[in-house]
Design goal:
Among the domains are: 26-72 and 114-237, Dipeptide-binding Protein, Domain 1 (Dipeptide-binding Protein, domain 1, Alpha-Beta Complex), CATH 3.90.76; 343-560, Dipeptide-binding Protein, Domain 3 (Dipeptide-binding Protein, domain 3). It is α+β, with helices and mostly antiparallel strands. Helix 10 runs antiparallel to helix 12 (407-416) and helix 11 packs across helix 13. A hairpin with a 3-residue loop joins strand 8 and strand 9. It starts with 83 loop residues before the first strand and ends in a 6-residue tail after the last strand.
Length: 631
Amino acid sequence: MKFKIMIFTLTLLFCFCLTGCGDNDIQKNQQKEQPRLKSGPKSGSKSIVTQEEKNYAVLPDNIKWLTNEFDLVFSSPKALRGGIFHSAITSFPMTFRVVGPDSNGSFRSAILDNQLSLINIHPNTGDIIPELATHWAFGDDKKTMYFKLSKDARWSDGQPVTAWDFVYTLEFMRSEHIIAPWYNDYYTKEIEVVIVYDDYTIGVKSTKAVPDLHLKLGISPTPKHYFGILDETFVQKYNWKIVPNTGAYQINDFKKGKFIKFKRKKDWWAKDNKFLKNRFNIDIVVFDVIRDVNLQWEYFKKRKLDAFGLTMPKYWHEKSGISLFQEGYINKIWFFNDQERSAQGMWLNQDKQIFKDRRLCYAFAHAMNIEKVINNVLRGDYFRLAQAFFGYGQYSDYTIKPRTYDIAKVQDLMISGGWTRGSDGIWQKKGTRFSVKVTYSYEEHTPRLVVLKEDALKAGVELLLERLDFTAMFKKFLEKKHDVAWMGWSTNIRPSYWQGWHSDNAHKPQTNNITNTDDPELDKLINQYRASLDEKERIKLSLKIQHSIHETGAFVPTFMVPYVRLGYWRWLELPDFHGTRRSDSLFDPFSSTTGGLFWINAKKKENTLAALKKGKVFQPVVIVDERFKVE
């Protein structure tokens, strides 16, 4: 998971080959009301705020500035700079925009991870750590946070990052021209204002007090000097533009359908930041489009990819039994982590007639033999996911159990709905058969779905398997044209419900409510959760919401994988601690939360390639790190 402080819209679970190939959201004590610059002029106005028009508020005198000088760094002083890291993606992104139509794809994370936020979270302790801000403070109104910006911060085009870039974020995100309803809603209903005290001191104010305020207000800047005034040409104009960013890397070359290259900035402004130092060590990161995972495996063996996800059992237990591993050219690591679990499973489209009856949603779930897949196909390495929001601590209802395979329950539910078994054994009613299409992308998942298909037939349910290119699959889901979506969502540090489960996002394309859930009682709970000012109340509401979601039957949870397993050529090196509590990929090159910890040892690469030619072998390396394993 690539966690950023700002709660962004959910994204389809990232799948670069290196991450596992598809498996793995104050003014109370002020003496007087302070003047505020709101979100800047509306898009389409004649000008953006000029130097002469800048208005500065007066900083309250009771500010208690905080920073983090006590947490340990999570990088290695042994890290070496340089080299080219080769990875793979299964499809080329539909756009480089991170908002607007077709932007919510998996590659979006690689772009966003190179855009820093005001603050971040230490992946081991959960404490706040600095990014663009060096210091922060909490307002007495429990709605406002104050930030001192680093005067060293620079956009990739050399322009300084200032307070006005955060003001512009509100203007940008509220604009109708970006065609992004979620962002329009969030930055209007959740973020009230950015207050400017000087060019490097701001306040960000929420529309309401919330627990964990820092998870909400650590927003990212938007380069005002680059975008300027937005208009109706935004979507088309910026579809393939490379926007200035603040992170360690920037896209410097690409060929549509073929590859995308990122280059490390030579004199990155944050290279000496305590929590960013000795990280992001690779000079160039190349993502080649290799659409088939089996082909990626062949590329990996031929040294055209540096790392490969071995999460799937056949790779860890069987395919890695080749001489390249046994003779020590390629290392293996099994690293357990401790974090929120991706909502991986089967998402039922309730706008389809067959799933409008909740009993059929339940019957479908009881016709899915997930346990058999885990035991027979996945060799018992995976764990059954109980529900969509598992692993969030007090915010998760651990009493919820998944519906398990039970032909008798399927029969009772179907008969109660007036269905009968046809001559072919499939349930039918008034000429309609219980036959649904399951849409997925990764060929490696086909054996799992074949087992489900076979046992579903025994229960009278027909699964039609539809495998699409990743981009085509995701587009189909967002357009709500699927019957059953086989996929997983990425996570935030707190449950986020409105995007995926509120009726505001049902029955319309380009939203994350792909089940088209439209439940007034659930809406009411979600609205209360969003508006709550009390953490205990939010926790209670969270548990109720999860129970309500479970009752819809619209999501059939499948697997969770509380670890990463990887193969990597021996010239890739990791810190002695291998990864952090929240690391979901040890060879993630970008994430400011957990990424960029590895490096390439050029001398070892040279020696390894020479040894391959001469037939020299090394001691095989298999690492199992259970330090963060949750029993």
